């Protein structure tokens, strides 16, 4: 029965590491979302200059 505390400790360590990774990915996702909206805003004048290449709905998700 001595291995159960070891397995529990290893799982706790793994859980902590995965929680840290999840937090970092969440932060990265937020930063990428912000960057995406900034790039979409920069892209607006290009869309007016080249209307054939526009995607009407790509900007909407940034400003909901």
Summarize the structure in words.
With 64 residues, the protein is mostly helical. It has a domain of 30 residues. The chain has one helix and no strands. It starts with a helix and ends in a 15-residue tail after the last helix. The model has no long low-confidence stretch (mean pLDDT 83).
What topology emerges from the helices and strands here?
Blueprint: H1 3-49
Radius of gyration: 22 Å
Distance linking N and C termini: 55 Å
Query: What quaternary form is this?
Result: single chain
| Shape field | rod-shaped
Question: Secondary-structure element order, as H and E?
Answer: H
Characteristics:
1 helix; mainly alpha; 64 residues
Concise structural overview:
The protein is mainly alpha-helical and 64 residues long.
């Amino acid at each position: 029965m001595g291995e159960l505390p070891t397995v529990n400790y290893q799982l706790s360590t793994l859980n902590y590491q995965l929680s840290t990774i999840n937090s970092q990915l969440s932060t990265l996702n937020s930063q990428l979302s912000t960057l995406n909206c900034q790039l979409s805003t920069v892209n607006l004048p290009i869309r007016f200059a080249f209307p054939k290449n526009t995607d009407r709905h790509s900007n909407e998700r940034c400003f909901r």
